[in-house]
Design a protein that fits this description.
Distance between the termini: 88 Å
CATH topology of the largest domain: Rossmann fold
Oligomer: single chain
CATH class of the largest domain: Alpha Beta
CATH architecture of the largest domain: 3-Layer(aba) Sandwich
Radius of gyration: 35 Å
Helix content: 40-55%
Length: 623
């Protein structure tokens, strides 16, 4: 039998074994039909009957190639192929019987009872042979005691496909012990021989300490439910895997390699954000859309989402050549029905931007270009002003000049009671945009939200890199907290706010609960299968210049008004005098050319009384 376990068992061997099974089936059929005492007249014709049956079986096997499958990987398809081949052969026996009886000599050469018994026995034994070989091979290669025990969450179609994928692609290594499903109608039943338990039994199963992996196989699972399952598994140090959305399956079929570890983003997920797609489409459809900072995390995601609303053209503007090249390739591949154009340019270059607006004449502008890294801008205040203030002013002024319908600025929670140069520069830009809205021509709208997961410079890519290197993970302070939102969530809300905005609003997003960075790091360590202080450690480096311990979305002097969207609110901010605002901003921009950082920051503090530097050399200006 060892020949069956070779990498490639010769098809001829399988073919001969199948014929041996057929021969055995015919003999067994005769013995059972005649109560183990075959009459002499039947024995006389048995060789002729046997030859006829074998010839027809050979033809049906050759045509169906039932012997071509690799026995140790027998699947449902192989069983179906055997069933069809044997059924076709047995149907031929019936046809031979009928032709012989009605057109030759009024006899049945093969008794119908023999045909039925032979058919059932052949189908059963051929399938049983393959299953036995498959089980034996798996046990030899990977004994039951060495297998990885798995629970599949979801006993629906996706769960079945996941189980079969494990059996097909990794059956030697994984053993499904249970299905978990929230549907009480399925509880207590079995699926492909595996018990189905209610979701309340998951913790009890995990507590047995025998479960190695939990695979979440619910295609449209609520993010909150996914988070609950994942955190329960982490509590028992059980690895969590997720099945990807069906559109990412290869040719509509799930592959074992596509079942991936759960991401930290899934543990921070919230309820799915609902947006008014009809209103967004009405705003964007057949319009020219300009996105500044289009190569960045937010800008590129805006481009992806906007492409679904059939704009007339998307203009992707950025000065970063390589990232812009990558989004260009992505759009060419995934958004073939969308007209777009890539433009390399600097928002601070007035002549270049003038040419861009004059040529494309955008209807809507999404302004995502900015310097965003707090410590970097703390050391380079002039650049923060040059890009975040003058760059924004240039794009906003041109939007007004060229009759842009809506200008949507992407701001940050760090603009609320700023403690850093970056936050202050963004707040100054907000003030200018709001002031410009008073001219009642272009609708100037600001959106303000916290950190986005996975963006360049965020803690998650940094922690992943540190974990891959074996640590340590560096955290500024044990008590530091941040608000987080996924990039698609943030961009969906930006589009929604842009659609509902009438100009002059600062929209703030419901960021959920703030997250302690230390807890984030610990969960990422667990997800990597490592143990804190054993495999990897955490060290504290102290707050960096300009950083806050806690972030906030509203100033004390601000309050909020609700909108029709439960996750979008309007911040009511103090009104500013337009003439004073424009004069102050012009003075601030002119200070760039002096390159005197102290004077630049002093001016921003004069404009923003709430700007108090934190852990910065500029704190001396506050006294």
């Amino acid at each position: 039998m060892s020949i069956l376990f070779q990498k490639s068992t010769p098809r001829l061997i399988i073919f001969l074994i199948d014929l041996l099974i057929c021969t055995f089936s015919v003999i067994i059929a005769y013995l059972l039909r005649f109560n183990f005492s075959i009459p002499q007249n039947e024995l006389a014709v048995l060789p002729k009957v046997l030859i006829t049956i074998l010839v027809i079986r050979i033809l049906s096997f050759v045509i169906s190639k039932s012997y071509a499958g690799i026995v140790r990987y027998t699947s449902t398809r192989d069983s179906v192929r055997i069933f069809l081949a044997v059924t076709a052969g047995s149907s031929s026996f019936i046809i031979i019987n009928l032709v012989t009886y009605y057109f030759i000599n009024n006899t049945f050469p093969i008794p119908f009872s023999i045909i039925i018994i032979d058919y059932l026995f052949t189908v059963f034994v051929m399938n049983a042979f393959r299953i036995i070989v498959k089980i034996a091979y798996q046990e030899i290669q990977n004994p039951t005691s060495a297998k990885t025990n798995v629970i599949i969450v979801g006993a629906g179609e996706s769960g079945i496909i996941t189980k079969r994928t494990l059996d097909r692609d990794a059956g030697m290594k994984y053993k499904v012990l249970a299905f978990i499903d929230d549907d009480t109608n399925k509880t207590g039943k079995m699926l492909e021989g595996i018990n189905i338990y209610g979701s309340d039994k998951l913790e009890k199963l995990l507590d047995t300490k025998t479960i190695n992996h939990v695979i979440i196989s619910i295609l449209n699972i609520n993010p909150v439910r996914k988070k609950e399952i994942s955190e329960l598994c982490l509590k028992y140090n059980t690895k969590v895997l997720v099945v990807p959305p069906i559109e990412r399956w290869i040719n509509g079929e799930l592959s074992f390699k596509q079942i991936k570890k759960i991401n930290i983003e899934d543990l921070l997920g919230r309820d799915v954000i609902r947006i008014d797609e009809k209103e967004i489409s009405k705003q964007i459809c057949n319009k020219v859309i300009l996105i500044t900072g289009a190569a960045g995390s937010i800008g590129s995601e805006l481009a992806r989402q906007i492409s679904h609303y059939t704009p007339k053209k998307i203009v992707l503007l950025d000065q970063a050549e390589t990232p812009l090249y990558h989004i260009d390739l992505e759009m060419l591949e995934n958004c073939r029905n969308c007209c777009f154009e890539v433009v390399i340019g600097d928002i601070r270059n007035k002549e270049r931007m003038e040419r861009l607006f004059d040529y494309f004449k955008p209807n809507h502008v999404y302004h995502a270009a900015a310097y965003k890294h707090v410590p970097m801008m703390e050391n380079n205040p002039s650049e923060a002003v040059y890009t975040n203030v003058e760059g924004t002013k240039t794009i906003a002024d041109l939007s007004f000049k060229y009759n842009v319908e809506k200008f949507v600025m992407i701001s940050t929670d760090k603009a609320v009671r700023p403690t850093s140069v970056m936050g202050a520069s963004k707040r100054v830009a907000e003030i200018y945009v709001q002031a410009l809205n008073k001219l009642n021509k272009t609708k100037f709208i600001t959106t303000r939200f916290g950190n986005v997961l996975g963006s360049s410079g965020s803690v998650i890519p940094l922690f992943k890199e540190q974990i891959e290197k074996g640590g340590p993970i560096t955290i500024t302070d044990a008590n530091v907290t941040r608000y987080f939102m996924t990039i698609p969530e943030a961009c969906s809300l930006v589009l929604e706010a842009g659609a509902m905005g009438n100009g002059g609003e600062i929209f703030i997003f419901d960021m959920g609960k703030s997250v302690k960075i230390i807890d984030l790091a610990k969960k990422m360590i667990q997800l990597s299968g490592l143990t804190l202080d054993k495999d990897i450690r955490i060290i504290y480096t102290g707050l960096r210049p300009g950083e806050k311990l806690f972030e906030e979305l509203l100033n004390d002097k601000e309050n909020t008004l609700p909108t029709h969207h439960p996750q979008i609110m309007i911040a009511k901010v103090q009104d500013t005098d337009m003439e004073t605002t424009i004069r102050d901003i012009d003075e601030l921009i002119n200070l760039f050319y002096t390159q005197k950082n102290i004077d630049i920051v002093k001016k921003m503090k004069q404009m923003l009384p709430e700007y108090i530097s934190n852990n910065s050399v500029f704190a001396e200006l506050d006294s």
